[in-house]
Amino acid sequence: MSEMKGAVAAGAALGAFTILGATAKGAGKGFKVGLIGCGGRGGGALGNHMAAAKQVGLENTVVATCDYFKGKAEGTGGKYGVPKEKCFGGPTGYKDFLATDVEIVLIATSPNFRPVHYEAAIKAGKHVFMEKPVAVDPPGGRRIIAAGELAKTKGLATVAGTQRRHQRGYQERAFRIQAGLEGNIASGCIYWCGGALWLHRRGEGESDADYLVRNWVSFTGMSGDHIVEQHVHNIDVANWFIGHPPATAAGFGGRARRKTGDQFDFHSVDFDYGGGVHIHSMCRQINGTAGLGGEHFVFNRTTREEKPDLKVPEFEEVGGAYQQEHADLLRSIVAEKPLNEAQNVAEATLAAIMGRISTYTGQLIKWDDLVKNEKSDWYGLTCTPTAEDFEKGEVKAPPDDVVAIPGKA
Ligand SMILES: NC(=O)c1ccc[n+]([C@@H]2O[C@H](COP(=O)([O-])OP(=O)(O)OC[C@H]3O[C@@H](n4cnc5c(N)ncnc54)[C@H](O)[C@@H]3O)[C@@H](O)[C@H]2O)c1
Rounded to an integer, what distance in angstroms lies between the CA atom of residue 56 and that of residue 45? Predict the structure, then answer.
C-alpha cells in the first residue's frame, strides 16, 4: 500500500515539477551517476537511466564505474567517456568508487554483494537504484531493510529493479485492489518457468573467486538460487497485491539438468499468507520445457466495494518499466520526496529465500524465523562465501554438483 501511495505521490510531484526551480542536489541540470556491476543488466540499467534522465529533462553524466573485473568497468565507462582512473576494479573497488563525487549509484552485481554495497552507498550519502534480488540469506535481507531505514533518515532515494511496481498495468491493478474495487485475494498461482541461463565452466587456473563471479547463476551463495534470482519478481507482485509477505512456506524441488553449482532446477512452494490465503509458486530453469510466467489471482467478489466516483490514475510508463523506474527515481529526488523501495524488495527477496529453505529442507518454514526469532535455525543462516570473504581474498568455492537433500539438509 505504502509503495502505491509513493507511486501516486511521485506522479503528483510530476505536475508541480520544474527542474530548474528544484532545490535538490544536482537538480539544476543533472546528476552525477555511476554503476557498480558492469555486466548485462548493469549496462542495460545505465542506458535506461540515461534515457530516463532525458525523459524528465535532466542532463545526467556518468562519472564512475566499478566491476570486479576492472576491464569490464573500463569497457562500460569508456562508452560514456569516463576516464580510466574513475573505472574501479576488484572486490573492494566499490569503496574507491563510493569515495568519488557520484550522486546516484546503480548496483547490478550478483545479489550476494547487494547488502554490503547498498549499505555502503547509503552510508556514503548516495541515492541508489539496485537490481533485484537484494540478498541471498536472511541476515542479508535484514541488512537491506536496516540500510533502507537509514536512507530515510538521510533523505536518500532507493528504487529496486522489481520493475512491475513501475509498470502501468500492474500499477492500475494494484490501485484497484487497494481501493477495494476487486475484492480480497482468496488464492493464486505465480510462475517463472523457462530455460537455462548461461553456464560458465571453470577455466584453466581460474581462481575460486573468479569462477564464482563468472558462474554466479549456478551457485546459491551467489544468486540465492533461481527461485530468488528470477521468481522474486512474481513473489513481489503477490506481496504487493496481498499487502504483506507470506507467513510460511512449504515446498519441494530438485535438480535434473545442471552440471555445475549447487542450485535446484525446479521449485514448487505453497506460500501461506494467513487468513486462508494460499499462493502456489512454481519456477523452473530447464531448456525444452514449457514456458510459463506471470501471476494469477482469484478474488472473493463478495468483498468488492463499489466506488463509482473513484478514478483510477493514469500511470506514466515511457520506454517500458525498465526506464520508467529510473524516471520515478529521478523525479522523487528532484521533488525531495525520495522513493524508498528497500523494504518491499527485501521482503520479496526474503519470501523467496524462505521458499528456497523449504524446498532444500522439506520443512515448513516460518517468516518470523527469518526476521524476528533470533533463536531459530534460519535467522542467522549465512551463505558462503560471503561478500566479506571476497574482500579478504578468502574464497573457497562450494563443490560443483553437491546439492541439498530434503529431509536431511
Ligand atoms: N530486473 C531484471 O529484469 C533483471 C534482469 C537481468 C538481471 N537482473 C539482475 O541484475 C543483476 C546482474 O545480473 P546480470 O545478468 O547483469 O549478471 P552479469 O554477470 O552479466 O553481471 C554482473 C556483473 O557484476 C560484476 N560483479 C560481480 N561481483 C562484483 C563486485 N563484488 N564488485 C563489482 N562488480 C562485481 C561482474 O563481474 C559482472 O560484470 C542480478 O542481480 C540479476 O538478478 C535483473
Answer: 16
State the Cα–Cα distance between residues 159 and 398, nearest whole angstrom.
Answer: 32
C-beta neighbour count of 37 within 10 angstroms: 27
Instruction: Give, using CA atoms, the residue closest to atom 29 of ligand 1.
Output: 68
Say if CB 11 and CB 316 are below 8 A apart: yes
Could you tell me the CA-to-CA distances from 37 to 55, 91, 214 in Å, in that order? 24, 11, 12
Cβ(39) – ligand 1 distance below 6 Å: yes
The Å distance, Cα 301 to ligand 1 centre, comes to 42
Q: Tell me if 336 sits within 8 A of 23, measured CB to CB.
A: yes
Which protein residue's CA is at the shortest distance from atom 32 of ligand 1? Answer: 68
Nine cell digits for residue 327? 524516471
The C-alpha atoms of residue 305 and residue 299 are separated, in whole angstroms, by 12
The confidence band for 13, taking pLDDT boundaries of 50, 70 and 90, is: very low
* 220-259 pLDDT tens trace: 999 999 999 999 999 999 999 999 999 999 999 999 999 8
What is the rounded distance in angstroms from the CA atom of residue 119 to the CA atom of residue 77?
Answer: 23
Cell output for 359: 524446498
Q: How far away, in angstroms, is 251 Cα from ligand 1 center?
A: 27
Q: Is 95 in the pocket of ligand 1 (CB under 6 A)?
A: no
Q: What are the pLDDT digits (tens) for 117-153? A: 999 999 999 999 999 999 999 999 999 999 999 999 9
